[in-house]
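Input chain follows. Return structure tokens only.
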Amino acid sequence: MSNKHLAKDSDQPTFPFDGKLRLYSMRFCPFAHRIHLVLNAKNISYHVAYINLTSKPEWLVQVSPLTKVPALKIAGESEPIIESLIIADYLDEKYPQNTLYSRDPLQKAADRILIQRFDGVTSPFFRLLYQRNESTAADAVTELLNALDIYEKELERRDKKFFGGSKPGMVDYMIWPWCERLESLKFITKFELDKFRFPKFLKWKDEMQKDQAVKMHYVSPEDHFKFASSMITDSPDYDFLA
């Protein structure tokens, strides 16, 4: 498949009958990014079709009932799986190689809570990146940094290289898409992670960038900023990386 995003009036993609998973994605969507990370970490072969979410193809509702990405189609199954956390859970249970969640139910529950609490980071992040309101930027930065304190303290408590231990686990991959994009905020407002306030988190971020699954889908902060900037104009550019 091409890396170009399929838009209104485009033909529905056809895939080989090879049993591989089919992922409907968008190159700059952090929620879809989660699923690329899980698939790559587990070394699962898959096909991907990128979707223009501003001018959606008419057939998208057939593979994603809410016309959102990510959506995962399984060969031989009529119903797709949607929502990033649900897809990630399915993949971890279906494909046992490189298990990303702990097998301990209590630890798994704790990790799921930590993933859910990351909403405290994503909400101010999106306001900063897409609203670009100078009068509220300082408060949004404060809100974001206060939310990140939770993850700094958790890394210190776990005393491991990653939230998942010696290698990245589900928490690492579910929060990474926004962490990859954090540095794009420096092009908008005064934003920097203090090395004294976030020493563990910054070290974790450096280690994550060395991970093969992360490298396979990495986009630079400059390019994340470029896409976000195009989204707040009348001509979003989905394909400048294609």
